[in-house]
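REQUEST
  id: r-88c1
  op: predict_structure
  target: 60S ribosomal export protein NMD3
  payload:
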Amino acid sequence: MASDMFVVPQTRGTVLCCKCGISMAPNPANMCVTCLRSEVDITEGLRKHVTIMHCPDCDSYLQPPRTWIKAQLESKELLTFCVKRLETDLKKVRLVNAEFIWTEPHSKRIKVKLKVQKEVLNGAILEQSYVVEYVQQDNMCDSCTRFQANPDQWVASVQLRQRVSHRRTFFYLEQLILKHDAAAHAIKIKQMDQGIDFFFANRSHAVKFVEFLGKVAPTKRFDLFASKGGY
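RESPONSE
  id: r-88c1
  status: 200
  body:
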């Protein structure tokens, strides 16, 4: 019997926009999205142009005040860096989404499309998208500056060798180093007859690199200390 009962269809009520009179779903502002956007711009006061420092030698970006972050174009790391540069602005709105807009690789321009939300008239939530353009200014980082001044000014070096007839493991290890960007802090990389030498301006970076090698491949470690303090 229950299946034969008359069911009243549920319909969603509509109201007229108080400004243009179009039929719309009710909201706290009693105004359609088009009219609401004409009344309120939630992106007003948010920066649309940002200047960022880029090191052309190691492809890293300056996170003020003194931290350099290595990131490739359109990478997750670069997107995170770009959004963090707007940290003060994004306290005024709620970030919903961020994505890159393609630009020419040599244009020294990075464009990010942001979608934000904010509570406006009478508690209505308005969502808008806007584009931020980042202008790159080339400026060498501290490590690259020191290296340019004196290419032999390194503090620690890691000599990677494989003394066997085949080099399959060595080539595999090279791919892992590239994939994980493990040698990002190396100020100089030199190809040798039986391997590669990595030079670092900081001993801790060299130690971290050696620890990475030990995790991904069987290695033997020999520590040598130079008379002038090199490691």
